[in-house]
Specification:
Blueprint lengths: L26 E5 L6 E5 L3 H4 L5 E5 L1 E3 L3 E6 L21 E12 L2 E8 L9 E4 L4 E8 L5 E5 L5 H8 L16 H4 L7 E4 L11 H9 L3 E7 L22 E5 L1 H12 L4 E4 L1 H11 L7 E5 L14 E5 L6 H10 L1 H13 L10 E4 L1
Parallel strand pairs: 1-17, 3-12, 3-14, 4-11, 14-16
Antiparallel strand pairs: 1-2, 5-6, 5-8, 6-7, 7-10, 8-9, 9-10, 12-13, 13-15, 16-17
Helix pairs in contact: 7-8
């Protein structure tokens, strides 16, 4: 299966650069899997599209300020600005680090992406802030990532909150601002660990959640800490050649029980976001969905047989991306690309801060 089969034309101006003032003010494209028909709605219509016996599952992961700007030890200290992550130029000795995966809490050890990558080798020492946070590069990974071991500090995540930046995706062509700490986060986020938001959840407000519960619709939560692997480009020519990086997940016992009850009763499971889909379908593929934690590395593309999820709320995804392949596996490549072409014509907003689709 060719990766090029999942391409589509997207005018740059449709990539949302800012969140809407009102989370629930997004548009919603409603796609029916069986007929391939779609219609234009508003996200506020979403609670009314649910069935009374649905089970809606959310990913409660929380984004942390995972991007750090600092310098190589020995380089002259300079003020660090909120750089655009898409920028390619660096001052002498300046470094950018994106923490992607925690290896050990004590001392803090992390996998990370670093820039400028070619200049930062094993044994290099990096300094952040007024040198109150320091790390040594102790290993280099298969894909160019580095393993950083930080010097022990009393409150590592407290320092990250003060020194770090929200890791907005590179297609948002601006530096992060303080408001992104709240808006690039779902209202139900609790479990810290993601470097990217589960963006389908960004549309929900406390009022929307209350409307769902007021209809007696059951909800549940899982945790999947979103890593950069979910969003990395597919460099292979054929879909089957791509390998997806694993991401840590956890399914609470209460969630597993509710999913089992829904399955026994023939009720629909509605996944909020592709990360929720990957969590549930990965767990279900290991001898039946059970409560517990693990590493999800399931790559879903057309031909996959879904065992758990019956409906999906999702944002619009990048051309030739693994997320677009997942959505195409769920609803069919042709109907999905037709819906995307319609969304382009109708000037929907795309990607993380953009509009959404509900597929049932």
């Amino acid at each position: 299966m060719l990766v090029s089969a999942f391409d589509y034309h997207l005018p740059k101006e449709l990539i949302a650069q800012q969140p809407l003032a009102d989370r629930a003010g997004s548009r919603l494209l409603h796609l029916c899997r069986s007929s391939g028909r779609f219609r234009d709605l508003a996200f506020r219509d979403f609670p009314g599209l649910l069935r009374p016996d649905d089970l809606v599952v959310f990913n409660n992961t929380r984004v942390f300020p995972a991007r750090l700007y600092g310098r190589r030890r020995g380089a002259k200290a300079q003020p660090v600005s909120r750089r655009n992550p898409a920028a390619r130029s660096f001052l002498t000795g300046e470094v950018e680090v994106l923490l992607t995966r925690q290896i050990s809490p004590d001392p803090p050890e992390w996998e990370a992406l670093v820039r400028p990558g070619r200049k930062i080798g094993v044994g290099e020492h990096l300094c952040f802030g007024a040198d109150e946070l320091q790390a040594e590069v102790v290993a280099r990974g298969e894909y160019g990532e580095r393993r950083l071991q930080f010097q022990p500090v009393a409150d590592f995540f407290g320092l990250l909150e003060r020194l770090g930046h929200i890791p907005l995706p590179p297609y948002i062509g601006r530096a992060d601002v303080p408001e992104d700490r709240e808006r690039y986060q779902t209202v139900y986020a609790r479990e810290r660990g993601s470097v990217a938001a589960p963006t389908a959840g960004l549309h929900f407000t406390a009022e929307t959640l209350e409307r769902i519960r007021a209809r007696g619709i059951e909800t549940a939560e899982v945790t999947l800490h979103v890593g950069v692997g979910t969003f990395q480009p597919v460099h292979s020519t054929e879909v089957e050649q791509h390998r997806l990086h694993s991401e840590w997940y956890q399914i609470p016992r209460r969630t597993a029980e509710r999913i089992a009850d829904a399955a026994a009763g023939g009720r629909r499971v509605v996944a909020v976001g592709t990360t929720t889909v990957r969590t549930l379908e990965h767990a279900a593929g290991n001898g039946g969905l059970q409560a517990g934690a693990g590493e999800a590395d399931l790559f879903i593309y057309p031909g996959f047989r879904f065992r758990v999820v019956g409906a999906l709320l999702t944002n619009f995804h990048l051309p030739k991306s693994t997320l677009l392949m997942l959505v195409s596996a769920f609803a069919g490549r042709e109907p999905v690309l037709a819906a995307y072409e319609h969304a382009v014509r109708e000037r929907y907003r795309f990607f993380s801060y953009g509009d959404c689709m509900f597929i049932e």
